[in-house]
Amino acid sequence: MAGQKRKPTGTYGSFDVMLGVTLLALLAYGLLMLYSATFFVGESFWQKQLLWIALGGVIMVVMYSVPYTVWQKFALPLMGTALVMLFVVLLLGELILGAQRSLIGASIQPGVLARLIVVVYIAAWLSSKGEQLNQVRYGLIPFAIIIGVVAGMVALQPDLSTALLLVITGLAMFFYAGGDPIQIFVSVVSGGTAFGFLAWQLPHARERLMAYITSLSDPAQMPYHVHSAMIAIGEGGILGVGIGNGRLKSGYLPFPHTDSIFAVVAEEVGLIGCLLLIALFILLAYRGYRIALETPEPFGSLLAFGATTMIITEALLNIMVMIGLIPFTGTALPFFTYGGSEMLMTMAGAGLLLSVSRGKPKKGEGVVYSASTFTNAVLDRGWGNGRARVSGARRSSSPASRRA
């Protein structure tokens, strides 16, 4: 009924049940497939993963319990901490598989954790800009410096896939905040050129690019890793060979518990299992972006959008690599890939998303909006008037311009 008071999804104190069930399903599915991918090795990867999930669960609960507005105040110290960690890993990090990206063994990777910190910092930074966002000297230039410094330090490890994900997430947040599409296009072209040049200078990256280009004209020349993944996907067919019955994970498929776990899923549970996996990520994206759209407070809206994009883009990149659509990159599949930093970062991001879904606390009381609040918030995005965005000096048309 028009004018009737109601509590939207983001009411403070409420729990997003659909999002919670989706996260639980992803964790259970991921742990099951990790167990199947590694039980033949003799090492208890899945038991170690349980410990990381438990620790990540604690972090998620903390993130959910703390009002998300608190992180806006700590955005700058968190960014400073991330830069220090990235600098330390370049000096003292352990060299693993040709990259100096880890501290305290292979489990803690500052570059991975920096992705979440960048989401928090960029959300705070963008939400403070208002009308100045589309002014190059106040918006694009400092934004490019922020993203460039962090991504550059990650790329020096070298970890180009994490640097790429960091840049993609940052640019998506800049666009969502109301950034000028022309400026974003210029940034994509210039940044893509710089990234391509850097990749070409690194022998392993150049080799992967050349192998991918060659495979476009001669599929028989595709890289061994991707070729193995494609065979595993083909072996799985529609229904798969059964959980635990996959053969390619035992010595033929490289890194079945990390980079290639999607191929293990495809072989053992087939197309149906892959579609289930993709459906769960689509549901996560739906809930995450719905929360972002329903949150009238700029920082919270940007935070929800950034956390969702951070998880979804990594999953999408991993799947695209495994089916041979893009050159090989060593990206993880969130909730499925074995690893401490990856699980902690993903769970912390999920906790932030759940926190934003509760809404902004207001003097200890639940926030109640009129029935027109959500409609006005959505219409205020500025996708009307026949253009993708409505930006400029008139007003900021983005979620960053809205005020509770």
Please indicate the percent range of residues in DSSP E strands (runs of 2 or more).
under 5%
The oligomerization state is: single chain
For the largest beta-sheet, the strand count, sense and barrel status come to:
2 strands, antiparallel
Poorly predicted spans: 1-11, 364-397, 400-404
Class from helix and strand fractions: mainly alpha
Radius of gyration equals 22 Å
Give a description of the structure.
Helices cover 62% and strands 3% of the residues. The protein is an all-alpha fold and 404 residues long. It has one domain. It has a two-stranded antiparallel sheet. A two-stranded antiparallel sheet has the order 2-3. Helix 2 (45-65) packs parallel to helix 13 and helix 5 (110-127) runs antiparallel to helix 12 (298-322). The longest helix has 34 residues, at 261-294. It is globular. Residues 1-11, 364-397 and 400-404 have low confidence and may be disordered.
Question: What key attributes describe this structure?
Answer:
mainly alpha, two-stranded antiparallel sheet, 14 helices, globular, disordered N terminus
Summarize the structure.
With 404 residues, the chain is mainly α. 62% of the residues lie in helices and 3% in strands. The strands form two sheets. A two-stranded antiparallel ribbon has the order 1-4. The chain has a two-stranded antiparallel sheet with strand order 2-3.
Structural topology:
Layout: E1 5-6, H1 17-38, H2 45-65, H3 69-73, H4 75-92, E2 94-96, E3 99-102, H5 110-127, H6 140-155, H7 160-176, H8 181-201, H9 203-217, H10 224-236, H11 261-294, H12 298-322, H13 340-358, E4 369-370, H14 373-379
Antiparallel strand pairs: 1-4, 2-3
Helix pairs in contact: 1-2, 1-11, 2-13, 4-5, 5-6, 5-7, 5-12, 5-13, 6-7, 7-8, 7-12, 10-11, 11-12, 12-13
